Amino acid sequence: MYSLELSLRYSPFPLSIQKKEFDDVKRIYDEIKTAMNETLESSNLIELSCDKVQDKLITVRAKEIISVQIYEKSSVAGGAKRPGFSLDID
User: Which HAMAP family does the record associate with it?
Assistant: First the structure.
């Protein structure tokens, strides 16, 4: 299961959805990136659905999205890989 997480302007809590296939979540990620670049002239709405919770729908304005990330949820006891970025300083 893959999670796609959105950070919104003026919101301390991220929104997330889960998809079963990486190709599905990557396609949505690319669509959101494109919409974020096009929001200078207009304010597009983006509707997202979740595979884990079938009735979950989220609609957001593209111009309010600050960041988007993908991470894989693991089914092992550890739960999920930690979202975010790692910085290796040698």
Answer: UPF0367
